[in-house]
Every structure is written in C-alpha cells, then in structure tokens.
Amino acid sequence: MYSEWASLSAQITANSCGAQCFSVLNKFPASAGREVVVSVVKQLGTNLGITQNAEPSHLVKDEEVKWCMDVICFGLSLPLQEHETIKDCVNVYCEWLTALHPQPRISVPKPICEDANLYARQIINHFHNLFVPRQGESADTIKRQAVLCHRVLRTLQQTAQISQLMDRQTWDTLLLFLLAINEILLAPPTVKDDVGDQLCERVLSVLFEVWLLACVRSFPSPSMWKTLQESCAMWRHRVALVDQWNRVNLALTARLLEFSYGPAFPQLKNADEDGQLIPIGMSNDCVAQTWYRFLRMIGNPTALCSPHIISKSSHFVQWALTHEKGAETHQHPCLQQLPQIFLNAMKGISSQVDAFLGLSKTSLIGLTGGGARNAISSSTTTSSTIAASTTSGASSSSSTVAIGGSGGGAGIPAGPGIPGSTGTGAGGGSAPVPVPTTPTSTSGPPSASSSINSLPLTSMGAGVELAVARPKCNSILHVFHEWLFEAAHIGGDTWRQNRKKQACEASKRPSSMIMEHRKGSISLSQPNSLNDPQSLPPTLTIDKYESGRAEAIGTLCKIFCAKKTGEEILPVYLARFYMALQQCLKITESRECDETLASILLHSSDLFRLDLDGINVLLPGFIAALEIVLPDKDLKLKTQSMVFNRTELRRSAINILLSIMVLPLHYQTLPIRDLTSETSEKMFTFIQLKSRLMNILMNALQVETDAQNTHMLLGGLLLCVQDAVTFEETELGGGNANLSHNSSGVQHHEANLLSSDNAHALFVRATYLVCHRLISSWKTDLNVSLAALELLSGLARLHIRETDALECKRAVKWICDYICYQCSRPPPAHSKDLHSTIVAAFQCTAAWLMQHPYLLQDKDCLQTVLEVVELGISGTKSQSKGTDIPKFKDEKELKPASMRVRDAAENLLTIILEQVGYFPSECGPESISSLLDELALMKHCNSMVPAAAASSEQAIAKFKYFVTENSTILALLEEPLGNDQDPQPTVTLLIRGPFGRHAWTMQLRHLPRSKSGIKYHAVNPGRPIPMNDVTQRLDCEQKNFPDGVDKVQPCVADYSIPTIEQMREQYGTASIRELESMLENQSIHEKLAWAEADTSADSLSHAQECVPPAVCHEFHAARLFLSHFGFLGFETRNPHNPAEALGNPPQRPLIVLDTKSTAFAADLDRLDKLSARTHDTVYVFYVKSGQTSAQQIIANMAEEQSAGHDPHFASMLQTLGWPVQVSEHSGWTGFAHNSWSLKGTPEEQLKSTANELNYNGSQRVLYWADVSSEIAFVVPTTWNLRYNSDTSDGGSISSTDQISSSNVWARGESESAAVLAKSKSRNLSLELDTNRRDAKEPVPPTRRKGNVTKPTLLAQAPAKIFLVWLESYEDYLNFPLEDVLAYTRTGEELHTLQLPRASDCHVIFVHSLLSGLLRVKLQGPPGRMSFATPLVDGMVLSRRVVGNLVRQTALNISRRRRLDNDNYQPPHVRRRLKVQDIVQKYKMDLSEAELLAHLFQRAI
C-alpha cells in the first residue's frame, strides 16, 4: 500500500541516538554531570508548585532555557538509583509542556510560552532517555522507572488531546517519538518483568490513541503509516500488540457501521472505554481511511505461524549470538506465545466479520478492557494460561467452542498447553482477547450451563439472526479473504506443499545473510532452518496453531452462510472456500474431533440450504465429519484442552444432517466429483450415501440425550421414512428401491447396510428404535415423548405394501405399555405434563388401529388395547395378571388418572367400536355423522305430503324424543319410510350422542327376510271345490253311560248329588218353577234369533265367502323398541352400591323431552353443529420477492396474478388436501357459519369464476380429515377481508349464546365458538356440574367448572397457523403478521374474549431452492410445547412430501396447543354437555304411569 513511499525508520534511529548524545554534560565524567543536574533540577523543581506555591520562572532568555534543557536531558538518562533527580526532571518537563495547553502553568518560562512548538519538540525528543531500558536493575527500581514513564505518557496524551497549538511538525515529532519508545521497549525479545514487559500495553495504547487523535488533527503522511507498519512487524511477538490492534479495529468498525449502514443496523457494542478511543471530531471519510490503514497495520496475521519470520529482527539475532549454549533465533522462549497471539488475531478478524454480519449484539461485549485484565491477574501464570478470556464461548460469534487449558477465565483460557511458558503475569501487562458472547464469572472452569444459556436460541437453534442490511459476502471477502483463506490452510496438505516449494526456491538463491557456521550462529535464509520441523521447539509445531485455524475456517463458514437468496458469490471465492473446507474436514485415522472440525460444524449449519453453487462436492466430507460427531455417546476429542458445549455442537451437526437428508433420493445416481483427485476411484454417487446418512440418523437418535436435539432428529426420521415411501410409490411404481445395487462400484461400500435402503426396512428400524427409546429413556420428558408419539402416528399413516403385521402389533403393544407405565407412576409424578403424554399416546394408538384394522382381529392385540382403554376409563385393570379372577365393572371404583385421560380412553373405545375398518363411511371422510336429520327423513316418509316438510319444527313434531344415560338423545319416528313395502312394526331412530349423529331403521320381524319373502303377501286362494259324494251314515243309539252302570252298587258318595225330587222337597216348588220359566224364555229367544239369522244376508245359507283381514299399518313401534331394548325397566337403584349410586337421584333409564318449545329445533341444530372431531384452519400465503405489505401478498392470489407463481406452489396446494365445493360440503369449511351443514340445504351461492388456485372459502376450499380431526386450508383473497368485516355474521348462534358460551376460548384452539359447550342464558353454574356427574362419571377427579377458570386463561385466543411460500427466503423477517390476521377470520372470533394476536400465530415458511428442494422456517410463540414435529426449523424437504408433512405439522401444533390448555374439552365432552343442557331445558318430569301413557300417544 505504501511501496512507493520512503520509510522514516532511519529518522527514528537518528532521534534516539541524538537524544542520548545531545547533552554537553556527556562530555564530562558522569559524577560531575550528576552533581550539576541534581543542583539545577532541584532548584527548578521548587518553582513548580508541587511542595510550595508556584512562582513565575526566572528563565527569561532562550539561551537560559536551552542550557537548562541540556542539563535536564542528561538528567533523564541517569541511572535509576538517582530516582528523585529523574523524577524532578520529569516534573519540570511535564510542567513546561503545559505551554501547549490553552492555559499554561505560571512556572513555564516565557521563551517556551512564546515558541511552544519548538521547545515541545525538543522536550519530547529528550524524554527518549527516560524510556531506555537500564541494564541489571532490580525489580523495584524498574517499577519506579515504569511509574515515571506512565507519568510522561499520560502528560503527552493529555497534551495531545487538549492542545490547540500543536503544528504538523510537532505532531510528527510526537508520533515518531512514540514509535521510537515502542521500538526500544518492544522490539527486543520479551523478558519477564523488565521495563518493556511492564510498559508494553501502555506504550502501545498511547501510541494508537495518539495516532487516532493525529488522524483528526493532522493526518499522518503515507511515510508515517509505512513506518508504523514496519515497526509493528517488529513487535508481533508481543501479545499486547494484537490485543490493542483488535481494540482499535473494533472501535473503528463500530463507527464505520454506524454511518455505512445507518442506525437500524445492529450496533457493535464495545466496552465503554473502547468506545471513547475514537476522537469526537473524526469525519466519516477519516474513519474509513483510518479503519482500513489500521486493519492492514500488522501485515498478514498468518506470518505469526512462522517463528522464523517473527524472529528475523536484529534483536533476536543478537540474543541468539550471545546465548551461552548457542541457539537459533526462533527458539527464544517468548515465541511460545505465538499460537495464542495468532488465535487472538484471528478472533479479532472474526469479531469484525461478525460486526459486518450484524451478529454484534451477542458477540463482542467485553472484548477488551477491564474484565480481561481481571481474569488474567487472577489466573495462574504457569502452564497454558497465556491469555485468559472472560467469556464463555470461543468463537466470536455465538458458538461455544472455548479453546483452552487450565487456569482462570470461564471460557478460553489459552491455546494448547505450553509447559513452563511464561504468562503475561499479574503486573502491568494484560492480554485481552476478542471475546464472543457475554462475560461470565472470571473464576472456575467453564461450566456447561453457562454455555447453554449464553445464547437465546431462536426456535430450534438454527443459529443467530443476521442483520437484514448486511453487506454482500463478496464485499466482506474482498477485505478479509486473503488472511482467512491462508489461515484456514495452515497445517493442511496444500500448506505443506507450498512450504516445500518455498524451501526449494530459497535454496536456489544466494543467502542474504551468511555468517560463519559455528555453533550458535545462524543463517537466516538457510533452507533447512526454514523448513525443518525438528528445529522448532515442540510448543511451536504447526498443530499448535490449530485454534487460530479453527477460528479462521469458522469465520469463513459464517461469511458464506450469510448469503442471501439470489446473491452471487465469486466462483474464485467459492473454489477457495471448498478447498479450505476439504482440507479441514480431512478425518485422521484416529477418528477424533479436533477444533477445526468442531468450528466448521458449529458455523456451517446453513451451508447446504443456501443454493451455493457446487456445495455438494463437500457432501462426502461432511458426512464423514457427522459420522464422528453424532453416532458416539462420548465424542473423541483430539486434545482435552478443547472446551465447548457438546450439545451445541451436536445441534449444529443435526442441522446439517437435516439439510442433506433428502439429497440422495433427489439426485439419485448423479456422481459427486472429488475436488482434489482427477481419478474416478473415489467418486461417489448420491444414492450411495443414503445408507450412511440413515445410519448416522439412527445412531444419533440412539445416543442423544438433549431434548431439543432429539426433537430435531425425530422430525428428520419421519422425513426420511416418508420420503422413501413416497419415492417408492411414485418414482418406482411401488417396486423395491434398493437403488444402491444399480450403481457401479457400490458393492464394496458398506454392503452390509444395503438392507437399510428400502422404505420397509426404514419403517421397521424407525418403529423399533423410537418405541424402545420411548419406553426406556424418553418417557419422563414431555416434549420428547410428544415428538416420539407424533412420529409413531406419522409412521402408522404410511402405506407400505409389505407392512409386517407383527411389527405393527409390536408397536401398538409398546404404546400400550407406555400408557400403563405412565398411569402407574406414583401420585407425586402425576402432573399435567404426564397426563398430556398419556392423552397423546391414546391418540397415537387410535392412529395405528385406524390404519391397520386387521390388528383387532388378533386376540392378544385386542386384549392389550381394551385393557388399556379400561385402565384409562376406570383407573385400574380387571385383571392385573393373566391368572387373576376378573373384577367386574359393577364392583370397581372409578378412579381414572384424570378426566382428560378418561376422555381420551373413551374416545379410543368409541373409535374401536364404531370406526376401525369402517372409516371413511359412505358419507366420505368429511363426516363421521349421518347426513340425515329429521327434515331429510320426513321427506322420505309415507304419510308426509312434500309441501308439509317445509320447516324443521314440523318435522321434529313427528318424532318422539327421549334421553338415555344423560348423554344420548333418541329421536323416534314410528312411520315407515316410503321405500319400505313391508308392513312390519318399523321405527326410525336418530341417535345423537357424544360422538355424532347416527340414523337407523329397525323392524320387528318374526321371520328373517330370506324366509318370509313374497309368500307373506299371498293372494286369496278362493274356496275349495265341494265334494258331492254323500257318505253312508249308520244310525246308532248314543249311550251316556256304560252298559253295566246299573249293576253297580251305589255308595254314600252317589247320594251326595240330590235328585230333582229332593230339590223340590228342600227348596219348595216355587223356586223350581221360576227356574223352569227362565229356561223356557231363553229357548224361545234363541229360536227367534236363529230364524232372524236365516232370513238375513249374512246367514250361512247365503254362502258368504271369508276373506283375510286387512294388513295392519298401525303399530306402536316406539314402545316395542324401548321395551325390547330394556329402556322401560323401572327397577329402583340401591344407593349404597357405588356402581348404582352414580347419579345423585336414583335415575330413570329414560327421560322424555318436551318438543313443543320453539327453541328446541334451534338447540338441536346447535348440537348438530358441534362437530365430534377437532377442526383447524391453515391459511396459505404466497410472498413474491421483496413484498412486505399484506395488500401485495393477498393480491398475489388474484386471478390475474396467478400466472407469475412458482409452479411448485400449485402442486404443493394440491397435496395439502382435497378440493371441495363449499356448497356441497358437510364438514369444516374454515368458516363457522357454513360448516357441518347438510348437503342440499340452501346456501347462498356467490357467483364468481373460480380459478385453479381459488381456495378462499367463497366457493372452494382445500379439506382433509381423519377419524378424529378435520383441517381446512384457506388461501385468502380480498374477498376474505370483505366477508370477515361483517361482524353480524353469527350463523345460527343466538346472541344470548354468544354472551354465555362460558369462556369459549378458554378452551383455546381453532375450535368454533359455536361448537363449544354452551349453557343456558345463565352461565354454567354448579347445577350443570351435578348433571355431569349424572353421566356416570366418577366423583374424585372432577372437571373444572365453567366459570371458575383462571382469568388469565379467559383471554387465550385460537391458534392461527399460516403456511407462507417465500420466493426470497429473507422475506420471512418482514412478513406482515399483524396485517394479514384480518384476512383470516373464521367467524368464531366473535365469541372469543380477545382477538387472536400476531404473537400467538404459528408460521411455517417454505422457500423453494434452485435445486427443486424446499427449505423450511418455523416461527411461533415461545411456548414449552409450541414446536411440533415432523417439520423442524431449517429442514430441507423434497417436493414429494411437503404437503403431507406440512399437514401433519399443522395438526400436531394444534394438538399440542390443546394438550397445553388446562381448560380444553374434547369435542365429545362438549357434545355431551350440550345434551345435558338440552335435558335441563326440555325434560318432562313424568311418573312411570305418565311415561307409559305418553308412549301410547301418537305423534302429530
């Protein structure tokens, strides 16, 4: 930079010599000179006002002043024993320098005041004598000399700051003087505690601070700058040089950033004293000039790795020549600090790079200054504590790799251990180190906790946010690339080759300094000494510089990871970077993790997700590195002095793993070129790396102990299995995907792992591993348990053709064991978190059974599942062991773990009994309820005239309503439906229970349909033909008694029946006569009746035919049904039996509802609008590059804009769900007012042309559902804003309901307010709580009462989940969350106590990379459970699986929110409470007789 300019080194030397021989007194014997000085200076000193009042000076002429100055000049060079005299000399000169001040002291001689600059220059030059080191002085006298030197430096610095008079010449003299004293004190090799060692930091700081002042007052000439550069090169063996250099650089950088990037750019926070380094008046241009010159001041820092270069100066040669045993210059003990100095220099550069990237908020506090000094003074001065730092974390960004040995400092005490090296000591010198992160305590070893807490992790630890306005990578590299690339190569193969090349060249040219080759001499250019590692002491071998190298490569990784979307980086930089990484990622045979490897992994978590050209050439190297770090429980470290947070290192490695998981299946057989060798021997194809990646993932999951890392790995595992399954389905048409067999040269490569390639093998391994870890070590951690159960649910949903039933059975068994274990934990462990995991496990079991219904055919599996359901509902199993006698339901006391657990178990039981193997029904997945209601049934009824079926009230009147078990409403219709020709007793039922609405038609038949058939309605067969042949009839006398009856002798009994004569005698003839006349009258009447019948038309003589009676159409079928099904048993209950005393009053099995009320129809409708499944809404946005306003983003979905979309966006939408027409849809539509309405019911049709992507909910929406949840994907347009501003849109919900829906959103979630348990117009009171107990619920774990919720929970708004497609990744920082909320109303917000806040929103950002892969960014509220799997922040997905994984993540986020919400009620509980509400309003208190009478009444 200054090559054309002359150096002023010669002038410095001349000034030094001149000062020493300047005085006349040098011509006389020393004793004479001393006496003159003592007497003269004592007199001058008394006038200064130190011991007595100051007086004006008696020196009035120039000659007088010059003579005195001659004396003082000699006095300053006296031996240190004359301390008092020297002190007086210093006092006089310091006073006289006030001539340059605005107000000179009274004792300054008049000539000096008149020509202050001339005299000041002489005084400054004379001061040189004071700083010359005296030989052989004791430590005490050296300290005195140091005190005087400090006084002079302080005076000079103060004068420079406040003087208005100094001219350019004086400034130059001052700067040259400071350079000269630095030269004389610092150029010689460091000797502990000499004056140079004590003053080192002070003289340097004064030099730099005065130099900065000069840049404002009198900018130094290029020659000056050149001299400064040359001088600094001679002092590089001093630790303080690099530390002071860093300090000034960072202070200048802070100012540079202020005016270059404006106030919005993250401020570089330095220590307060460093902030004052920069003079107040420095202009922006001056700051920029000074910054660049200072940056280049010490030359290339990599020279610090060559002791030969550092020790080239004459001072070192002199030491080598005078050494008694003979030595080389580079063997001086002070050079052992070079590795630490190199590390400090690299950290300084790294800190500046951080500042440019905007990382300064966390990284640079306390970089220099007091904290560091304290740490050093408290640290030991032996071993490797050359320079202790005060912070946790070594790299200057937020990483926590602290490199160090023993000693104080809570972070990076030092470089590699240097036995017996001298520390900087507790005296004057200190060695501040560039420090990342915040300071922690300065004593004790680095603690893991401090490093974990040092960084507030963003979501899933994908690194610290960079400044938005940061400079381009190219700009930063233009400044630092040369040093960083060279430093990154130190000790690598290319570096060694270059050294050999240099050595060869050096041997060809003549030596520049050949001395006699005797013992102890040196030849500076001698090639052997340049290149011979044997000649270096063991503490200076090249591997000792690894800490600095690690810092350099880490900084490079940070720079390249700061690339923005679409930013170009020069190919030459990329090539050099890849070469450096390849060198640094070389794995040694011992397979240890060294600092360089750790630094790369910590800082390159984003490297593979930035569209860097050609980055994939590094894939094999990175995979090899991950194989060292992730699969082993105990990381093998190269040196034990490496101190860093292993959890952070593993997290960073997992981030890299998540960004490369999908590459093998994406690129398949594409070869990966090797950077160094041209041959194809080492060539890999992408697919070959798949099995290695899978093994890393599985093994990492096996040994991982950190919850967050495990969470990330579980997300990655589901991604892998899902990707493999989808790949085999789509790309290979379902064939087996052992792709590795296809590529050549693979057989030798880990052949034993080929089996792990296909989807089925992955599925089996994943299931086994996760179940095993869940049972063994994850069960106590809420988040990891939830993530594992989410993963198992995801695995259950995969359609793998060769699924092994045994594997699935084992998985279900394991999940059930998990539930049993969690339920059996002792009472103190039963917390909300524990119950959340149990509920999640029940949901997971349901997922497995739904997807694999054949499992219930297995007796063992069915037994296991039902036992667990029983455990959930009642709290105990009937048989704890297989040999026990089962305990019946009536004998058990109901004590479930909690109501939430009981609800979840009930839900699973219903799914097993109603849905497994039957979902989706004929209605489709959009409804698990029947799509028939009263109105629809009446339209098909025989007796109904179509016009009469106008209103639901009329239809309801035809039904009889009963409630059973206080939770199920039965609606009975006694008329057969129109399509039934059978006049059987027929009843049509609508059953509304907690789990939906179901329609059944029942008939009472005496024969099965197959046997009754058509014969039942046989036509009349007619009369049979008479038989005319008359039979012969024989006349014979009829005998009433046997022939010999008269011969039998009568006995007493025979006489017990009186004869008629005896009767007459007994009663008299009158009674008998009366009887006879009655008989006679009767016979007359009968004869008349017969005669009348003979003459009538009905008489037998008229031959009337008999016909079968008319078929009966009138049945009391409801009564028959209720009777047959046992609802009319009125047995009384025994209140002492706990099983029978569940209801508070002894409860009847049947309650009759009064349907005459007009509000009954509305209440039924409200019950029907309560879905039996959870429902969520995801809003999808498309953000074009650079868009930041909600209007622009919403406008992207307008029809005319859709042509400019990324084509992959449309295909992603199609994979999220099924497109449905809102008007025909009977599930959740994303809007409360038109969800769960029956098909065919009139809906307002908005006429507009639907474009392909128009899923805004006006006509079409994307929908997906399974047995327990529904989710709608809405793509908002301006229509949503217009529609949502209509606050009066309450649908069928009455205003009283809105007011009284008892803290609707306390249940949190995107659950509809319409669908929450509503009470009557009064709020839920204790009365309703007693009703709940009627529903056979156990007393001990009562539910929270509706009104008694905490006030804080009342305000919880529903979760909003957004899916945002970004064209430019950086736009996620400016996404207008607040503004787009207006477009995302569902109509439920009217009933919340507070509108959703932006801070509660979960956002899934998806950014399409050039490779066709997708990068994910998650953002959400900082809750304990807010981040659900399978998507993980920073993950890279293939397009095949994006829809599926986004949907699963959205569902899991919502599930977690529900689990975390104390007051959330599952849908079936809300429906049950609504039924109880209806019972309270409409029940008729009938006695048994009245109930039976009611049954005989016809409906209208």
User: DSSP strand (E) fraction?
Assistant: 5-15%
Task: State the end-to-end distance.
Answer: 106 Å
The share of residues in helices is: 40-55%
Total number of helices = 54
Overall pLDDT level: 75
Q: List the strand order in the largest sheet.
A: 11-12-13-10-14-15-16-17
Sheet with most strands? 8 strands, mixed
Poorly predicted sequence stretches spanning 5 or more consecutive residues: 361-462, 511-534, 734-755, 1139-1146, 1241-1250, 1285-1356
- Count of DSSP strands: 18
CA-based shape? elongated
Which secondary-structure class do the elements indicate? Answer: mainly alpha
Radius of gyration: 49 Å
Task: Describe the structure in brief.
It contains 54 helices and 18 strands.
Please explain how this structure is put together.
The protein has 1500 residues and is mainly α. The chain contains 54 helices and 18 strands. An eight-stranded mixed beta sheet has the order 11-12-13-10-14-15-16-17. It has a six-stranded antiparallel beta sheet with strand order 8-7-6-5-9-18. It has a two-stranded antiparallel sheet with strand order 1-2. A hairpin with a 3-residue loop joins strand 5 and strand 6 (968-973). The relative contact order is 0.05. The model is unreliable at 361-462, 511-534, 734-755, 1139-1146, 1241-1250 and 1285-1356 (pLDDT under 50).
